[in-house]
């Protein structure tokens, strides 16, 4: 099967959607399919991402004026790196990364690609946000024209059996819709809805029209969980076949590296890897850390809000900001932490992709949620960790219980932490489900097909 994927978010982007399709493309290639990827040229490289086979055809295009300038700057910086800091500064940095009590291992300690936040990131975010006021759905929309021109060429040159749009951004859906007269079946990997609670007011009407057009013209729609499928069915009816294809984890992670020395065996070490948003709140957990000084939380994130920076400055022994780590380093830390923290989104139709990554780490998960959701039910059913209300008192009680359990050598007692029971959420298994969907679409399976659940 010849597959053409439209994906703005693709390496070197380290976003969850980029990781999703990097792994799925790799597995589709291993299954013998010819895969072409149309993406934006975002410049540079991001270390630690999964390697793609040379047989995958990646077609990079100009992303637009602003993102193009940023890509040029990134390429330049990678070709002309700044000189290392002076020795005293380097020593201070190492001390900050490994405060007293942590068995630092200089050769293996994780090195952040970017600090949690600095003035350059603030300036870049501000400029992109202002420019994004004029572009739908955000600044990534400036790729639309450039991507569309290359897509038309690829449709004639590649002659794909099926085209897939990887959302977000919504630009990829617009490009897919533009090809609907070509006679090639189109699959929309929707991820989050186009019209979501966080959609800016100025784009809500356009987002609704686009989402409705997707369900009118797509041969198949993929979402990441059952609740999202139900939500889309309520909005758009049952004419378009749909599948659930969750986020996942790699059954064959990189070879085990020596211990990083980041965590202290005398502490209860919590780890959170992922983004933080207004609809994914960590405030109660930060407050609950005060329950015992032996409890420590490490956060690996691209950027963090200012209140978290302030909290880290106020309690550096209990809250560490690791910055944005390469994907492989984040995976290694997940396998070493005592407890992996997952925080529910306000919208139950959205499940943080990191939860599925956590399933592959073999460590217990502490899920914080105001009400029972799909993740909570899954954790309980799998005996994979603990579910706790996202409020300070409940979290503090849970953390003290876990601290006592660790001190008694009972932290993992009663839990099942192997990957065998969660194999259905591996990228390898998910790719088999995706292959079946694509084969059905390319073979002309009609809209009467029942909804499917893969993983």
UniProtKB/TrEMBL annotation:
Sequence ranges assigned to domain Glycosyltransferase subfamily 4-like N-terminal in this UniProt record: 116-251
UniProt keyword list: Glycosyltransferase, Transferase
GO molecular-function terms, A-Z: glycosyltransferase activity
Compositional bias of kind Low complexity: 86-112
Keyword match DNA repair: no
Region feature Disordered, mapped onto this chain: 79-117
Name under which the protein is recorded: Glycosyltransferase
